[in-house]
Design brief:
globular; alpha/beta; 202 residues; 60s Ribosomal Protein L30, Chain: A; 2 helices
Length: 202
């Protein structure tokens, strides 16, 4: 689908979440954080979250906070519910969970990025989403661009390298960039994105 002549551009900070219609582009930058990208191919709606941690101990009086995986998922489900579609009708992609300290973390220690990815997979299975692609773990930053009008996600992965001999990394979960609609991000026209100034809480 061609890029619309006019669209809004949203940049997600850690803890942010956005769900919207087809005239929207969402961008974010990930390290150990994880983003879930969801898209409905028929309704042409979708969203993205950017969570930092797997979860927390939360009292019933505490509102939902998008910094935590389980609560970010609940916020996405609230938006999905408004559209009248089931989670299984959405395509979902997982990104992030990188090790930001290569060479320091031993392979037998689960870093926060790994825990974020594992929690994301558990939530996806629990709520019946269909995961069509992922680019997770490894080392370094990931820059994402999600165009809701097409469902296409562009990815630029900057790998961090240690100054000493690196430890063995778990790369079994990495997928090629050309798998299921992923490719290196092309140069895009410069625009002033809208930054969500507050985390989504309910």
């Amino acid at each position: 689908m061609l890029e619309p002549e006019h669209f809004i551009e949203i940049f997600l900070q850690p803890g942010d979440l956005y769900f919207g219609g087809q005239h929207t582009r969402i961008r974010t930058l990930l390290g150990s954080c994880v983003s879930l990208v969801i898209w409905h191919p028929h309704l042409r709606v979708g969203g993205m979250c950017h969570f930092m941690l797997p979860g927390r101990v939360r009292s019933p009086q505490t509102g939902l906070d998008g910094r935590y995986a389980d609560e970010a998922m609940e916020l996405l489900l609230l938006d999905i519910g408004k559209m009248g579609a089931r989670p299984s009708e959405y395509q979902l992609k997982i990104f992030g969970g990188g090790n930001m300290f290569p060479g320091i973390m031993r392979t037998d220690v689960s870093h926060i990025g790994f825990k974020n990815v594992q929690t994301a997979r558990e939530l996806i299975a629990r709520y019946g989403f269909t995961c069509v692609s992922e680019h997770v773990e490894g080392c370094g930053h990931r820059y994402l661009i999600f165009d809701i009008w097409s469902g296409f996600v562009s990815l630029r992965h900057r790998v961090l390298k240690a100054n000493w001999e690196p430890v063995q990394l778990n790369t079994a979960l990495l997928t090629p960039l050309d798998y299921m609609g992923l490719e290196p991000a092309a140069e895009l026209p410069k625009r002033d994105p809208v930054t969500l100034s507050t985390r989504r809480k309910r």
